[in-house]
Amino acid sequence: MADETAVADTGAEQPGESSGTGESGESGEELRFAYSGGDSEEWAGDLTGRRLGSRLPRLVGRSFALAWAVDRGAVVALLVCQLVSGLSGALGLFATTRALGALIGAAQNPGHLGSAVPSVLVLAAAAGVRAVLGVAIQGLSNRLAPRISREAEFRMLEAATNAEMAAYDHPGFNDRYDKADRGVEVSRDMIGQSQNLVSSLATLVAAAVVITALAPVLLPLLLLTAVPQALASVKGERITYLSFLATFHDRRMLNMLRWNLTHKDQADQIRTDTLAPYLLAKYRASGTKVDRTNDRAAWQRARVTLLGSAAGGLAAALMWGGVMFLLGTGRIGAASAGTVVFALRSAAQGLQGIVGYGSDLMRTGRYMDDWESFVEEAAGQRLDRGALVPGRPRHVALHRVGYRYPEADEDTLHEVDFEVRQGEIVAVVGENGSGKTTLMKLLSGLNLPTEGVVAWDGVSTRDLDPHALWRQTAVVPQEFARWPMSARENIHLGQPRPGGDEEVRRAAAASGADDVVARLRSGLDTLLAREWWGGVALSSGQWQRIAVARATHRDAGLLVMDEPTSDLDPRAEHRIFTGLRRLAEDRAVVLVTHNLSNTVIADRIVVMDRGRVVQQGSFQELTTRPGLMRDLWLLQQDRSAPPGVDGALRGD
Ligand code: ADP
């Protein structure tokens, strides 16, 4: 609920508040992130003392299980240290009674002072052991924490790479990823919190054992002091978590703005479009809303904590009254009373630790829940396809295929039939938005069709092992990656072929990337990352040559190229297209291009219009017979000025 309110606020306040310019032309759709919290809100509502009790053991178990996965030896050592520390705590308390008894006796008869020595020695030894173990426990926790965090991150990254591509089009996937990421961030705290909780529990148990032995009637009073504080702490956690949910969208907005304001890709447009003040104002507006919500939560929390402490203080007064009563009525002796005082102090510390670390752990646990659910099912999008391993495809085909993007109102592809065979080059053309890129994603098994079948040698891509399928696929997407790695790695992508650099150079020569590499300071070894020390920046066209070299280097049976030469100069483009026929000898090649003269080399051209295949044929056929291809071709050839322009230029 709180979340929904925050979303509504975001939309209502942002434009006016942020720009400060008062333009009202911003009545468009509000920027609303797709995920509204899911079970998080339910969880916050359910955050009660009862749940605290039932969840804490599970959370402690989980943190030790994660620690176990990264370093078993350290976990065993940690548990042994905890146990011995708890035992020495109890031993120390019992020794206190004897020591106090002896000391009180010695006060009356100084000759008996020596009898206190053994108990005092035990006391000192117990304290010493606890101190040494405390250092060991701290060291072990410090050793485990970063390892746990890295393991958590590794599992999350693994889950993300094992999600269906379509996941990114599902509302909430990115938000779930962000939440899981928060889980990774806090995972390093989990072991410390768990071990502090266990240690507080050990302290409490040791004290409770002593109190039970000496004055059992005080035990319920002790509990009474803890309950109000525990309840206040749980309620405080709930308040904090609800404010976290309420600010979720604004915090995401802040992240998004931060990225956009600083990333190199947009840096030029931020300047030339003089956009910075507008975006900065948006940033400030979201920040203010986050602060306002946090302030409200902090105030509520302070009130609750104050109430809890007052009630706890009252109960503590009752308990101390009980101690005085027991002593005054002679129900316990002076030595026992002294020990009980020590035990009560130590029990109070234990209780405080349990409540404090318990609520810390609950919070961490909540984020870890997000992490766990992401790791387990990649937000419901884990790759779950067949296990058949395809060979080099000889025939890739779409049969009556329809595709609708998640949450889209209508299908992007309708009843598409399409095929490409080994040795063949098929060009796909059509206007923007006609579905060409979507078709490429289906051919290469990145997405699965929502209707019909995409088959590789007669086997549906649903039944094929996706990773094996992608090993047989080379794709040059429109937006190709520019990996911050060496030129060599940017071409072989960590999968060198048996010929090593020889193959890398051959692929580079086929795309014109050899000229790029030749001019690099250290050739193939050069780091292609401007942001890194010593890295080199390439132009878009140079990068595109590298991207095409990548696909050429890959020994894959299906080559899919989506506008592979859009940024290339005529020489480089010519080199790629003349080399394509040789590449196609043992590959099935699909090529999307807007430059229709490039389709001359294709064996077949498929023309798409609004998600349907409307024409198929050779270049000769399609450019001579009436139809969309001929229209587009004629438009591309027509470079005459639009009507009226000539006259205007002449000043008619
Ligand atoms: P083309 O490559 O021919 O320009 P696309 O295949 O990229 O066309 O897109 C076809 C249609 O699918 C467009 O109308 C676009 O709005 C829609 N579309 C593309 N990607 C997505 C997406 N991730 N989610 C929803 N709709 C999408």
Automatic annotation (TrEMBL):
Residues 396-635 form the ABC transporter domain. GO terms for molecular function: ATP binding. PROSITE patterns: ABC_TM1F (PS50929), ABC_TRANSPORTER_1 (PS00211), ABC_TRANSPORTER_2 (PS50893). InterPro entries: AAA+_ATPase (IPR003593), ABC1_TM_dom (IPR011527), ABC1_TM_sf (IPR036640), ABC_transporter-like_ATP-bd (IPR003439), ABC_transporter-like_CS (IPR017871), P-loop_NTPase (IPR027417), Type_1_exporter (IPR039421). Keywords: ATP-binding, Membrane, Nucleotide-binding, Transmembrane, Transmembrane helix. It is a multi-pass membrane protein. It comes from Streptacidiphilus cavernicola. This is ABC transporter ATP-binding protein. It holds the Pfam family ABC_tran. Residues 1-29 are annotated as: Disordered. Residues 76-363 form the ABC transmembrane type-1 domain. Its main location: membrane.
